[in-house]
Amino acid sequence: MAVAEPRTTTRRRTPRVDAIRNREAIVEAAAEVLAEQGAAVDVREIARRSGVGMGTLYRHFPKKEDLVHTVLRRDFMTWAESARQAAIDAEDPWAALTTFYQQALTGYARHRAIMENLALTLAEPDLEGIHQLRLVIEQLCARACATGLLRPGVTTDDLLLLLVSLGHAVQITDECRPRMWNRLLHISLDGLRADHREPLPCDSTVAGVSAP
Amino acid sequence: MAVAEPRTTTRRRTPRVDAIRNREAIVEAAAEVLAEQGAAVDVREIARRSGVGMGTLYRHFPKKEDLVHTVLRRDFMTWAESARQAAIDAEDPWAALTTFYQQALTGYARHRAIMENLALTLAEPDLEGIHQLRLVIEQLCARACATGLLRPGVTTDDLLLLLVSLGHAVQITDECRPRMWNRLLHISLDGLRADHREPLPCDSTVAGVSAP
Amino acid sequence: MAVAEPRTTTRRRTPRVDAIRNREAIVEAAAEVLAEQGAAVDVREIARRSGVGMGTLYRHFPKKEDLVHTVLRRDFMTWAESARQAAIDAEDPWAALTTFYQQALTGYARHRAIMENLALTLAEPDLEGIHQLRLVIEQLCARACATGLLRPGVTTDDLLLLLVSLGHAVQITDECRPRMWNRLLHISLDGLRADHREPLPCDSTVAGVSAP
Amino acid sequence: MAVAEPRTTTRRRTPRVDAIRNREAIVEAAAEVLAEQGAAVDVREIARRSGVGMGTLYRHFPKKEDLVHTVLRRDFMTWAESARQAAIDAEDPWAALTTFYQQALTGYARHRAIMENLALTLAEPDLEGIHQLRLVIEQLCARACATGLLRPGVTTDDLLLLLVSLGHAVQITDECRPRMWNRLLHISLDGLRADHREPLPCDSTVAGVSAP
DNA sequence: CATGAATGAGCGTTCATTCAT
DNA sequence: GATGAATGAACGCTCATTCAT
């Protein structure tokens, strides 16, 4: 249907530029919306904000889930990167840990879809972005542990779960009771310090209590 | 309307037996489903599981919201009651607090709709059941504080937020990493002990960090 | 289940009294509601107002339609009767006619279900009550015709249709423009007077005009 | 967003052809169904008849009400237009008036939803289409009045109410007694002529008669 | 390739009618 | 008989996904 002949060399480049621009617009818009409203948003809203049609959106991301994952991957990456940077800049390992949580909770914890997924991800850590974040935390953990500031036995998973946990607290209180989560963070960080005698339970210390 | 002499007692009881059974079946099924899937479930699913028709369900609960509230009220009540009991049975105030969290997290934290609502409720505590729970926590807080075991400055809201926060951790880890939250609980409880020098921040101690 | 023996003679009378009372209560309540809201009302509303259960209502009137018909029959009867009386009391045939419309439009035209059905009934005059009304109109028509006051060729059906037609006008204007229909009545009655030269069309005088 | 050189005209036309066809199919089907059954129809029925899915229907008309209004607006417009044309073509003001009613009652009076709304509209004239119709009637009224053919004191509202009133008569008799309303129209028109001595009542001439 | 219109299963809710008590 | 709880088909509407242009 197209005339095909004249544009020989750049033939495949032109559409691609457009396609890439579109893809980026979609991801950008989606990131915005997902941060604001979580993964339950109407796909139409994303298409609207990115200025592309539904078809384009679905060409790039055949399932809503694909788009969500892409955005999350990206945002987890960025997050991990900025976290790593902040950690490097920090004076000492403990400050690095503290700063990490502060930044995370002040920033990304407001990203609804990020938090929704950070949660899911402990179960099935399929998202590579999250892996980056995990690596950062691993480093923070290792360093704080090595200097003897971190309570012995605390694992990366503990710190990750604490992040998810406090992240949720942020989401809940952010609008009605801003920074109330800050106190919880202090408490938790104090609980993470080395000056506690008792070792942490090995996941199943306490006797069972019946379910509802 | 009729003069109706002797049958006073058994007058209106008979037909209700069935209705009550149904109502209970509905609430029971709803509680189950709400615990499993949260408040977003299809009403038809509840009807199906309880073995009643849609009409019956809507006769008892004119709006889906009514049913949800009823279930939540009930479950919050039960929860508060069992929490209170456990607290009373505890040897000392600190054990009471510990046990409370243990029980709460082992039991009700798995209830999706409960947690959803517990979250919402920090903003607008409309459900009366939740108030009961809050009262229990208030007592636990007061007692633990009075004995000097609880870190000064810790409020009921802090404990409540910790509950929500850890509750979320439970929901996340329960299936894939059972009792991993247990370690987080220990950490948090240690952070709550009185032997910490620094006072808690008054909600906005730390300098702002920019959002993503 | 009942003790069966002692009440021999009056055995079948007692329940009937109750049944009749119930039936009457139902009809009464239904009449009220139907007049207010038309035949589209929820059957529950009728049951509620009459103080009986749904079962009772449906025992007496297996279909909603049955109840509606019963009420309409009754109300058409009453209407016919009061119309006849008013006609008899009138000084002259023309006054009788005028009074009839006045009374009808001031009174029964506000009865929503009556008007709904008066309409339907020109098609299939199944309701006996309406027949009574029709007879009254027939008399009015005959008398007014005989005295030469009524325009020749005007039939009972014409007068009936005028009634339906104006009745509808009443329903529409009653709340927002009370008695606006009164002017229409005057116009129509003047058009019914004998002093018009042209005969009425035989149902199909005018050339067809295309439908929408 | 692209620079898009030569294809200016055919740019956005192509995809719309289908959409417009669908939209028209929906409106057409809706008009049909609304005319037949009134505004209470099931939206699915409209979708079915127009051959589109529910989604398509709701894309074009987000609320059922929107569709209904669109249809009514359209049909009132058409009606007003054809009425105006017929009035213009008429030999004299009285013929114009006569023709108007003839045409209205032969055509649009069969449209159930139109009549339902024409009725409602005397109370709250919200639909713009209806306003057009009103204007036409106003002109007819003014012209007939000016030539001294119309009975003094007759207002646009009177003529409108007569229209609604007779329209209802049409709906009732159309199927079982076609054109029976024609006689009523003659009567009413005769009543509207100037050769009546008595002035019309100012809305509340006649003494009240008690309600049923 | 982009577009956005089309699809249809599914949701919360209502109401005439039936049936166990 | 009387009661009112139970039934389920239908209604207005939404949204992830597909498909013609």
TrEMBL record, chains A, B, C, D:
Residues spanning the signal sequence: none
Lineage top rank: taxon: Bacteria
Classification via InterPro entries: Homeodomain-like_sf, HTH-type_TetR-like_transc_reg, HTH_TetR, Tet_transcr_reg_TetR-rel_C_sf, TetR_SbtR-like_C
Annotation: DNA-binding region: 42-61
GO molecular function: DNA-binding transcription factor activity; transcription cis-regulatory region binding
Ranges in a coiled coil: none
Pfam families from the UniProt entry: TetR_C_43 (PF21597), TetR_N (PF00440)
Domain HTH tetR-type span(s) in chain numbering: 20-79
Entry keywords, A to Z: DNA-binding, Transcription, Transcription regulation
Name of the protein described by the UniProt record: AcrR family transcriptional regulator
Organism: Nonomuraea endophytica
